[in-house]
Amino acid sequence: MISSRLGRSLQQGVTLVELVITIIVMGIALTAIIGAMSATIGRSSNIIIQDRSLQLAQAYLDEIAPKRFDENTPSGGVPSTTYPCDTSAEGGESRETYDDLGDYDGLVDNPPRSQTSSQFVAYEGYSVSVKVECTSRAGIAAANLKLITVTVTPPSGPSMAFARYRSNF
């Protein structure tokens, strides 16, 4: 029985060809995994920029929307039928004294700031512009409907526009 075992050649280990093939296959698999992970990581920062842009636009829209429809609209929002829609700002007003939607038309803040002039610290490098325009929609006359568009430009990536309608109620 011992002689039959000695006569047989038992293979132990791997050959050089098998080792090279294993290294090549693992290299290809590792390259594919790293490529997929880097693409995912590159897109994850875009979500943070989009979220910050949304928060910034919401802050501006929350500031602008409650203001009076125009200078001719009394507090309480009684619709005016005698005045055409107006988006012009009065002369001599500063951001702290804006009291109607038209005052915000053409506003550009870089860096963004609130109505009380304090900067949004987390939004360094962002730019915000506001456009207010008269429009009509679904049977509402242009004299009683305005479209507020807030455009946020992040430090990197494309500009994002956010819009809201405001009626003279």
From TrEMBL:
Residues 72-85 have a biased composition (Polar residues). This is MSHA pilin protein MshD. Pfam families: N_methyl. The keyword rRNA-binding does not apply. Keywords: Membrane, Transmembrane, Transmembrane helix. It comes from Allohahella marinimesophila. Residues 70-115 are annotated as: Disordered. The chain crosses the membrane at residues 20-42. The keyword Iron does not apply.
